[in-house]
Structures are given as C-alpha cells and as structure tokens.
Amino acid sequence: MKFFVDSADIEAISDLAATGMVDGVTTNPSLVAKSGRDFKELIGEICQAVKGPVSAEVTATQADAMLAEAAELAAIAENVCIKVPLTWDGLRATRALADMGRQVNVTLCFSANQALLAAKAGAAFISPFVGRLDDTGADGMGLIADIRQIYDNYPDLETEILVASVRSPEHIRQSALIGADVATLPPDVLRSLINHPLTDKGLAAFLADWQKTGQSIT
Ligand code: E4P
Question: Residue 187 — pLDDT band, cuts 50, 70, 90?
C-alpha cells in the first residue's frame, strides 16, 4: 500500500519524506491557500522533495480551460499528477490527459458510480473522500470496499484507489484490509501510525534494565 502526504507544507513533507515512507503527495486549493505560498513554485519544491506523483489541482471548470491549466502544471516537473474534479468537464479533461500519457487524479468522489466513470475516463487515481462522507453520517469505508469490488470485477480498469479525506489511523487500517492501493494522509495522521503505549512502556523498561548492567555496546 502506498502512502501519500496530504499537505502543502513543504517542511512537513520533507520531514516525512526522510522516513522513507512517502510515495507521493496530494495538494488541493484549500491546502495551497493555507500555505500562503505561490502555487507553481510550491509544486516545484514538492516535486523535488518527493519523487512519486505530486497532485496539483486545476481550478478551471470547463474542460478546455482545465487542459490549459494542466499544461502549465505539467511543465513544472515530470512527476506532477493533474488533479481534476469529478464533473463531466473533469472527465473529458481526464480522457484527453490520459491519452497524452499524463497521470490524472480525479478528486471529490463520493459514490461508486462516480468512481466507475473516472476509471472509464482513464484516471490513474480516484480519490474517494472518506472523512467527509463519515461527517454526513454515511459510511466512508463502505464506499472504498464497494469501489474495490467494482474495480476487481473489471480487470481492464487500471485506476488506483487513493483514499482521501483521511482523519485517523483507523481509516488506514481499514483501507489496508480492504486493499486500497494508496492512502493520502495528513502529516499528523501519518506520524501517529507508529504510536502504541506498550511500545513506549516496553522500550522504557528495556532501557532501564540495560542501564543496570553498566554495559555499553559501542
Ligand atoms: C486529497 O486529495 C483531498 O483533497 C483531501 O484528502 C481532502 O481532505 P479533507 O476532507 O480533510 O479536506
């Protein structure tokens, strides 16, 4: 399972990349606004820090204008993945970009049928938003399971399931059990995956006992 970092904070991304656990990055207009950074300059820096796909989202709503923006974004670096919204225009742009050999991440997916459309359009990634679904009382992880089953029913569909709007380690555990291809994690959620109180307690006891031996390994 691949881990992407869901952030536009270059320091957090670089810090996590050093762990060797980061396979890509996703950004969105809200995250870029929060960063206060120039969009294209920021994407260039992220593409240097992480070699895998870096999603940069178009903000046009018409297919032709999306393609013009995609050309600008694609020129930044080889590993830019164009992110488009799940609209008919977005799917038209997806088809055109996929035909040009460009990776596309189709975002704002909230239903299995939307995921099917994105795959038929040639998306490299589909981004179902589990946290935002959970917020409405719907079953975010249930959608991931449905999409997994649908894509597995049609092996010619090569789109990877990229679990988005992740809020907790539990979303990651369930995504892995279901067999999602990728999850994009906010930095704090990624960092928290390692936590277990018994690990901390066990290590403290081992170190205390080692001190008593008076020995040193080096
Ligand atoms: C990633 O591609 C999405 O834009 C992101 O995961 C959305 O997360 P949010 O629902 O926490 O804003």
Answer: very high
Q: Please name which of 33, 6, 62, 56 lies closest in space to residue 184, comparing C-alpha atoms.
A: 6
Residue 218 placed within a domain: no
Average pLDDT over residues 84-95: 98
- In angstroms, the CA 111 to CA 67 distance is 25
**Total number of domains constituting the chain:** 1
Residue nearest to atom 4 of ligand 1 (CA): 28
5 in Cβ contact with 13 (< 8 Å): yes
Q: Say whether pTM exceeds 0.90.
A: yes
CATH code at position 107:
3.20.20.70
pLDDT tens per residue across span 53-66 = 999 999 999 999 99
* Marked catalytic residue, from 2, 34, 83, 212: 83
For residue 26, give its domain range: 2-213
* Tokens read off for 175: 């995504």
Measured in Å, residue 125 CA sits from the centre of ligand 1 at 14
40 catalytic residue (yes or no): no
Beta 2-6 vs 104-109: how paired, if at all? Answer: unpaired
pLDDT in tens, 163-175: 999 999 999 999 9
